[in-house]
């Protein structure tokens, strides 16, 4: 089993689509393939973005809860076998709401609005922080 060949396992972020491929060689041919996330069977759920096809599992718009170990299990009339587990790591933003700014106005032109954005490995902040700088006593 493997994470989709076009995906970088170190760059999966919340909201991304991912897929797994179950690579099976069975004789006699497998008649059932099932998928597991942290040892719990995964079932198709189109409204949640979980799609199961012949030998692949697709997860649309992954979230924090989708991180963990994935395995596929194949069965034929002789028996059943599980793949090695593949760990899905989902990077996420912290959703923090606190911002701090240390700033000293040196002249009248230094007052007004200051905007800032943070960037990290997950991406760039969508909505900037806005600080209103006013002279002391002008609140």
TrEMBL record:
The entry's protein name is Hemolin
- Gene3D superfamilies, A to Z: Immunoglobulins (2.60.40.10)
Source organism per UniProt: Papilio machaon (Old World swallowtail butterfly)
Q: Which SMART domains match?
A: IG, IGc2
An annotated GO cellular component of this protein is: extracellular region
Pfam families attached here? I-set
Its annotated compartments are: Secreted
Domain Ig-like: where?
1-93
Whether Heme counts among this entry's keywords is no
Xref: PANTHER family: SIDESTEP III, ISOFORM O, SIDESTEP PROTEIN
Spell out the family assignment given in the record's similarity comment. Belongs to the hemolin family.
Q: What is the lineage of its organism?
A: Eukaryota, Metazoa, Ecdysozoa, Arthropoda, Hexapoda
Keywords linked to the UniProt accession: Disulfide bond, Glycoprotein, Immunoglobulin domain, Secreted
């Amino acid at each position: 089993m493997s994470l989709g060949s076009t995906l970088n396992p170190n760059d999966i972020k919340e909201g991304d689509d991912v897929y797994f491929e179950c690579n099976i060689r069975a004789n006699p041919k497998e008649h059932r393939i099932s998928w597991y996330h942290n040892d719990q069977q995964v079932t198709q759920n189109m409204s949640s973005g979980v799609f199961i096809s012949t030998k692949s599992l697709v997860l649309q718009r992954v979230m924090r809860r989708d991180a963990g170990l994935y395995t596929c299990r194949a069965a034929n009339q002789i028996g059943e076998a599980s793949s090695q587990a593949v760990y899905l790591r989902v990077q996420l933003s912290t959703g923090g709401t606190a911002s701090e700014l240390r700033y000293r106005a040196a002249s009248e032109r230094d007052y007004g609005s200051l905007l800032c954005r943070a960037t990290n490995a997950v991406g760039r902040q969508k909505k900037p922080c806005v600080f209103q700088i006013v002279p002391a006593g002008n609140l």
